[in-house]
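Hey, I was hoping to borrow your eyes for a little while. I'm sending you its amino acid sequence along with the backbone structure tokens. Take your time with it, there's no hurry, and the full record follows here.
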Amino acid sequence: MIRTHGQTTGGKVSKTYRAWLNMIQRCTNEKRWDWKHYGGRGITVAPKWINSFATFHADMGESPVGLTLDRIDTNRGYEPDNCRWATWSVQQKNRRLATHCKEGHELTPENTAKHGPQGQWRLCRICLNARSRIKNQAKHHRRIAQGLCTRCQNPATNGLCTVHRAYMQYQWRKSAQKRRANAIPRL
């Protein structure tokens, strides 16, 4: 006798069954695009849930409209005492903190600056310093254009001081990236 989970209507599976399937896939399927954020970092599914949708359904109940499956503690696995049905806005507030900035620098307490109206954004001090250096170089470039930089007028620097040379190289790389991004691919 073939037994089914009873979660299909007109050939479509229920939202609760899809949540259960996706939970298992995120934690066990290495080929899935988001596996690195779940199974790849040690997030597991409770043994009693992994092979039994009925047990999952008995513990969690039917998925309410407008809610999705959420882990209360983002560093623990999918277990009955760590899961709930939550809205997207609740889940957005329940995130783990980034460990590295977009440039790859580690976000340690020494290397992190709080920013924003309530200090809610964590920024990398290395990247902040680099941005301010570029802004200062831009000011220097404007001074050169106005003929106010005496270092660039020195014949020993071949017409460019080190700050201006670095800024020009930065501008050239930026424009080259823009040209590559706007280039029409050849067929």
